[in-house]
Amino acid sequence: MEKNINLRNCQTLNTYVMLTHLRMPAPIRLRELIRTIRTARTQAEEREMIQKECAAIRSSFREEDNTYRCRNVAKLLYMHMLGYPAHFGQLECLKLIASQKFTDKRIGYLGAMLLLDERQDVHLLMTNCIKNDLNHSTQFVQGLALCTLGCMGSSEMCRDLAGEVEKLLKTSNSYLRKKAALCAVHVIRKVPELMEMFLPATKNLLNEKNHGVLHTSVVLLTEMCERSPDMLAHFRKLVPQLVRILKNLIMSGYSPEHDVSGISDPFLQVRILRLLRILGRNDDDSSEAMNDILAQVATNTETSKNVGNAILYETVLTIMDIKSESGLRVLAINILGRFLLNNDKNIRYVALTSLLKTVQTDHNAVQRHRSTIVDCLKDLDVSIKRRAMELSFALVNGNNIRGMMKELLYFLDSCEPEFKADCASGIFLAAEKYAPSKRWHIDTIMRVLTTAGSYVRDDAVPNLIQLITNSVEMHAYTVQRLYKAILGDYSQQPLVQVAAWCIGEYGDLLVSGQCEEEEPIQVTEDEVLDILESVLISNMSTSVTRGYALTAIMKLSTRFTCTVNRIKKVVSIYGSSIDVELQQRAVEYNALFKKYDHMRSALLERMPVMEKVTTNGPTEIVQTNGETEPAPLETKPPPSGPQPTSQANDLLDLLGGNDITPVIPTAPTSKPSSAGGELLDLLGDINLTGAPAAAPAPASVPQISQPPFLLDGLSSQPLFNDIAAGIPSITAYSKNGLKIEFTFERSNTNPSVTVITIQASNSTELDMTDFVFQAAVPKTFQLQLLSPSSSIVPAFNTGTITQVIKVLNPQKQQLRMRIKLTYNHKGSAMQDLAEVNNFPPQSWQ
């Protein structure tokens, strides 16, 4: 009875399933879905089609329909590539992977690569399926598993399956070896410590004749060399074998299987060249072994097709990166020069970028292609134009400055606005560095201001004013040129500002017509004032420009004789200006006329020659190896009463406590300023000294609440006649061939003073240049660095640098010091910090 009931139930269930399949039509094929979606006229219509199909696919997944699962996942992947969400198909991909049918596995693995990644835990469920398929009897199933693992395998999966990959890397099947090599690359990227596992398998990879295996093997070797210095040294012995493979590719005849535009397997050639570049870098023997083959590739490769250009470009990069011969480097640069004549914009851009990287090391070779590079400034492509501009500035030197500036000024006239700022800055720097004469320099800067005045840097105006001031013999010529430049055109505000300043300073030269460099013009005092008044009322003039113009008019009151009353009237008018800055200037100038007229001529006399220094706040500090000097700038007198200690001192902690003292500057010296021109400290660019005193003194002491320094009022020369003998010297620093020794002296007139003389010696084979010694001590001390005897430490201990440090230790505490050393050696900038705590007791007790 029960058996009859069960049989009847099974028949009913089968009938229900059959009826369900009859009621549900078969899903449309992928090809039909693509055709339907492409008929959509709007984005909304396409979304509606996609949503409808996704609903049908979801329903099919819920019904566990195994018949059409593969078709539905394929459609889902297409919708995923269109940008629609398809995450609900992830588990269906895993079901397809577990299927025994190859067509199901193929779609399942493809879906896993597209829809899954290591951030989702679902991918770990695939590990066992991939392991089984890696050991499958069919090579195509093994290939699917290798591709999937190499595409999205996580570090956990790679650790679990690395053994199977290494086993397949040793197989004789070329189809599997090339896929296993690429999969090994992914495993090494995810788990670098597994690299040694694949080392035995790489021994015979380069002996394979199959180009696919060779290609993937070179990729694997490249990855291992880039990630491990030990592997790089190990694989350098393969250079002759790689050279032989590359030579066979070049010399082999036509092979339809590997031929691309008449070149045998360019993809393999490019990969080998990249590997050779890594192996030959910083290695003389490897570089020597590949010089000949690189020359053959460079001379025998066809350049009429992009395929050949790609190989030549890789060859150039390899030549430039290894220790190649000078003739080979010239050949490489000539190849880049030929690239500049190519019609393809991408090739021209690549050539310009490569030349820009090599111009510093092979300047003369790049100079031969200067005319071609300058022609690229006329290119319509903005990227090529920018690279050509940067390279043109890199090629400027003292021999070609006139010709290059002519081309660059022409480019500045015609280029787009986004280029003008960079081009103007480059012209300023080049002109300042290589100007053949001051007149040429002034003319060039004025030409830039006339052409692109609105785009120049903020410091262009003061720099040009300084240049004009220092060129005493050019004053009449310059003021005449500037006067003519602004007649009726006030659009270039920086040019108008410089012109107003010069007219105010040298207006008498303009009116007298004393110009000898060119034909003088006849200008009256009223015409000059008309121009300046026009600047004041022009709508194009900024507040800063009006300030320049008003000050220029005021200065002319001491240079002109017939128009003083007119100048008084103009100045008085602007005493009620709505511009506060202009009003303040006018009020002060009116006061000069009314109350201090006897001082006016002295106050408004010509500016003296200015020295160029770097601005750092209200006072400019010129740093010379630990010494500072106030530049001749106008500063406010310090307020009366005690001054607070600089906040910077509270931030420093060099020796484990908040007790650091600043370096006390010595008297001004004539030594050149160091790079940066700022007061140096041992923790960056913090100014340790606070505000220096305004009045010049033999020793410029900062206004900080410290006890009077022992050297105030004394000579800054390190001369102490009363010396306490018997203080042993110490070695404060010894590293990389540089040795610093301290010797000590004590003054009987002031027992709190310790004079330390440093001696720097160099035991290496090359000189150490730009040597700078700096020091910091706790706040209970005061320290003064004097000028060093030189900035070059001679090689082979043939000489020393000496420098004197004076330390005030009123509390007789144990001396501690931190030192900072910077210098250039073997073409590299070196920097090091050290602590000195082993001072002998006699030096501080």
From TrEMBL:
Positions of the UniProt region annotated as Disordered: 620-650
Subcellular compartments: Cytoplasm, Perinuclear region; Cytoplasmic vesicle, Clathrin-coated vesicle membrane; Golgi apparatus; Membrane, Clathrin-coated pit
GO CC terms, sorted: AP-1 adaptor complex; clathrin-coated pit; lysosomal membrane; perinuclear region of cytoplasm; trans-Golgi network
Family matches, as InterPro entries: Adaptor_Complx_Large_Subunit, AP1_complex_gsu, ARM-like, ARM-type_fold, Clathrin/coatomer_adapt-like_N, Clathrin_a/b/g-adaptin_app_Ig, Clathrin_app_Ig-like_sf, GAE_dom
GO BP annotation list: intracellular protein transport; vesicle-mediated transport
Family to which the UniProt record says this protein belongs: Belongs to the adaptor complexes large subunit family.
Primary role: Subunit of clathrin-associated adaptor protein complex 1 that plays a role in protein sorting in the late-Golgi/trans-Golgi network (TGN) and/or endosomes. The AP complexes mediate both the recruitment of clathrin to membranes and the recognition of sorting signals within the cytosolic tails of transmembrane cargo molecules.
Protein name: AP-1 complex subunit gamma
Organism: Homo sapiens (Human)
